[in-house]
Amino acid sequence: MLVGQGLAVVGLLGLLYVDTGTPAVLVALLLVPMALGCALTVPPLTAAMLDAVPAERAGLAAGVLNAARQMAGALGIAVFGALVSGGFVAGMRLSLGISAALLVVTGLLSFRLAGPSASSA
C-alpha cells in the first residue's frame, strides 16, 4: 500500500514540471507511476476498511465507503477544477502539488495506523 502511495507521489511530482511545450508522450509516461500507484493503493485500503468492521456490518461499511468515494470524487473535481480555471498551467501545478502533499500525509497516516508491517503490503 505504501509503495503505491509512493509511486503516485512520484508521478504527481513529475507532472509538476509539465508545461505547454511538454510532449504528450512524456505526459503519458509520467501518468504511469501515478496510475500504477493508485492501482496498488486502493484495493488494500478497501480491504483494510472492510476488515476493520464486524462481518454483519460489512454491507453497511461498503455502502459508506462507496458514498465517501463518490463525495470525495465530486468535491475533488470541483475544488481542483476551480484551481485550474484561473490559469491552466499554474492551476494544474497547484492542484498536483496539493494532491502530492495529501498523498504524503495519507501515506504517513497509513504507516502510523497499520504499523511497520504495512510497508511490506
TrEMBL record:
SUPFAM superfamilies according to UniProt: MFS general substrate transporter
Primary localization: membrane
Domain Major facilitator superfamily (MFS) profile residues, every copy: 1-118
Keywords: Membrane, Transmembrane, Transmembrane helix
GO molecular function: transmembrane transporter activity
Entry membrane topology: Multi-pass membrane protein
One of the record's GO cellular component terms: plasma membrane
Location(s) in or outside the cell: Cell membrane
Gene3D superfamilies per the UniProt record, alphabetical: MFS general substrate transporter like domains
Entry's transmembrane regions: 28-50, 71-90, 96-115
InterPro entries: MFS_dom (IPR020846), MFS_trans_sf (IPR036259)
UniProt name for this protein: Major facilitator superfamily (MFS) profile domain-containing protein
Source species: Streptomyces curacoi
Lineage of origin: Bacteria, Bacillati, Actinomycetota, Actinomycetes, Kitasatosporales
